[in-house]
Amino acid sequence: MFVRKVMLPLVLGVVLLASGCAAKSSSSGQVATPPSGVAASAGSTAASPAADANGCPTSNTTSFAKTKFLAHTGLAFGAFHRYVYKPYQAGSFSSGTTLQKGLVYGKAGAAVLFVKREVRLAIVDVQANPLLCKSLAAPLSSLSDKIGGVVTKLKGGDASGIQDAQTAVTAIEGAAASGGAPITEDPNAKIG
Fold it and tell me: Tell me: the pLDDT tens digits for 23-67?
């Protein structure tokens, strides 16, 4: 009975979270747009806005795009640092008992799924704002690709994926701050 009450919601939550992380990207590093007739995010307009040469809109296409971008990246970057980067710096992925390392890997894996989802949502919001789109669309897409390989590389003993992702996070935070949208990380971001 305990297994049904506790494990079933947990397993369903992980499956739903994982299915929401299937962001599509092209080889050019830009996120694919949703099929016609499907809204990119809540509050998007029905008409296609004018776009510049880079594919960025000439005016806002979603209400509060900058605010939503800041919320999504604050959660994503806070979770990345709490569950992946800080344990990496502390050596938690290579030391401790098998159970301890398993817990660290489990938390890191769940955090990576969460971060990937939040970054995907942030990309949608960036693509709805002309100023953010020009400076942050490509770096966010690159980060999304890097985050996906972090846990896989780490299991193979290669920790370079974490440092690459950290470098990308730092670059995005700097570009956002210089663009007038400083990201405030949520240090207490929880993945579950």
Answer: 444 434 444 444 333 344 444 444 455 666 567 888 888 889 999
DSSP bridge partners of 31: 25
Q: How far apart are CA 64 and CA 68, in angstroms?
A: 6
Which residues contact residue 92 at a Cβ distance below 8 angstroms, ignoring those fewer than 6 apart? 100, 101, 104
**DSSP-derived secondary structure for the chain:** -HHHHHHHHHHHHHHHHHHTT---B-TTSPBPPPPTTS-SSTTB-SSPPPB-TTS-BSS--BTTHHHHHHHHHHHHHHHHIIIIIHHHHHTTTTSS-HHHHHHHHHHHHHHHHHHHHHHHHHHHHHTTSHHHHHHHHHHHHHHHHHHHTHHHHHHTT-THHHHHHHHHHHHHHHHHHHTT------TT----
CA dist 178 and 108 (Å) reads 30
- Listed in sequence order, the residues at least 6 apart from 158 whose beta carbon sits closer than 8 Å to its beta carbon are none
pTM for this entry: 0.70
- Two tokens, residue 100: 């301890």
Question: From CA 70, how far away is CA 163, in angstroms rounded?
Answer: 22
